[in-house]
Design a protein that fits this description.
The structure is a single chain. It is built from 21 helices and twelve strands. With 563 residues, the protein is an alpha/beta fold. Among the domains are: 3-83, Gyrase A, domain 2; 113-261 and 308-365, Rossmann fold (3-Layer(aba) Sandwich). The chain has a four-stranded parallel sheet with strand order 5-4-9-10, sandwiched between helices. Strands 1-3-2 form a three-stranded antiparallel sheet. A three-stranded antiparallel sheet has the order 6-7-8. Strand 9 (325-331), helix 14 (335-347) and strand 10 form a beta-alpha-beta unit. Helix 1 packs across helix 2 (19-25), helix 8 (178-184) crosses helix 9 and helix 13 crosses helix 14. The structure holds arginine (ARG).
Length: 563
Amino acid sequence: MDFKQSIANALSAAAGLGADELNTWLETPPSPEMGDYAFPCFKLAKTLRKAPPVIAQEIAGALALPAGVVRAEAAGGYVNFYLDKSAQAKAVLEKVFIEGARYGGSDLGQGRNVCIDYSSVNIAKPFHIGHLPTTVIGSALYRIYNHLGFTSVGINHLGDWGTQFGKMIVAYKLWGEKETIEQGGVDELVKIYVKFHQEAETDSSLDDQARAWFKRIEDGDEEALSLFEWFKSLTLKEVEQVYDILGIRFDSYAGESFYNDKMGRVVDELREKNLLKLDQGAQIVDLSEYKMPPCIILRSDGATLYATRDIAAALYRKDTYDFAKCLYVVAYQQDLHFRQWFKVVELMGYDWAKDLIHVSFGMVSGTEGAFSTRKGNMVKLKDVLSAACEKTYDIICEKSPDLEDKETIAKQVGVGALVWNSLYNGRIKDVVFDWDAVLNFDGETGPYAQYTHARACSVLRKANYAPAEVDYSVLTDAESAAVISALGAFPDAVVEAMEKNEPYLVTRSIIGICAAFNKFYYEQRIMADDAAVRQARLALTDATRRVVAIGLGLIGVAAPERM
Ligand code: ARG
């Protein structure tokens, strides 16, 4: 039974607006005393020419209460609806059990593809802590969209093009050793690259050589290409280790170089559509009308740019995937870049330019002592992940010395803590990284949610729980009702997270469930003497562990059964 929909239907009769529209107006009140759903009357004030509180009174008076709703009450500009607790318990728990792993999901996005450009690492550059948000926000969105019936297409738009690869080749030829680099990977590549820059300050012939090598890459020279591919495979080998730890996958690794042969189309089309302008030798799209600097398409030497490649990639993705949305999970520093080239695509006359979305996020910075500063600010993601696992291992040894397979669980909890930390706040907020806060088992952290899940599993194990008929009328106490409301709110949170591209809304929903469950756990005896009460409370515990596990799965955090 969908209470929200039946309230919307009842409102539709009373307010004379479509039920589907009104459904989207219904809110969840901030506290249980204010009911289970609240209908804001503010938007009706203009058409009805009455003050919102008056409208609320009238609606509350005129409304025929739908089944399962016991009360509708005006409060200020809202009408608050109170559900029959036992009917709500039945509806929510049965839905959780029937839908199983699909709970919170739907076929909302059926038949629609969503491209998600995330992580998008740069070849021969370290994969550092700053890449954590794009990687985990992107993969959380990937799962959330899939859960809602969309088909997610994960794209790692590799930074694998540019003159720096000419420099890398020169550096390698002068100072590189194959073996050392095979073993040391990206670290070694970075070393010789830094050396190139130091030496080039006094020896300008190095830059000329670099340009020549880059030209050879562009011309498809065999030696140049094979070195370039080697740098690429070394980098990918390293990042893939991190992706494995995080349980992340991509459907495409088509990066900047993939579009080498697709630049002509962009330039030709822009020229045909009269959008190109010559400016100091460069070809640009003038965006002054939109209060933005010009978008440079071709440099004066004819080279294409980052933006040109992004435009080519968008055209290619539209052709290949016919996306309903194309998301770019990239730091807010690139805000102007995306606004510029999105505008260019719009000026090209593509109405799907509106489906290009920059999902931006803030920076990660460390507190004193959070990251080893030995290597400057470039703290490698791999090192942070290992440190998290080691620290968690120590905590587990101290807290649960008898736990089996501590190492696996330490990995799940350590990695989960880091992932959670990036998905705890709205994206745009800068993340301050602090080990104590991240690994705190009591705060609103990943370990806390995982622990709550493990606690529920342990209750069920000890009780030898087997599902059976439930008398829902015994789940009407305040603590049980709060857990049920929190479980019932989860599906809306998933939809809202998708609509706003904000995975933290799922994280917050998980916290809501965990907090309510822990309160219930402390205040109500689950193993009550009365068999019916016991069975119902165990069913509630079972529903909790299922939904928490689904939520954790969506944000990419493991849900161990023991901790
Ligand atoms: N490699 C780029 C960087 O590290 C991010 C690429 C984002 N994706 C895109 N299509 N521009 O800054």
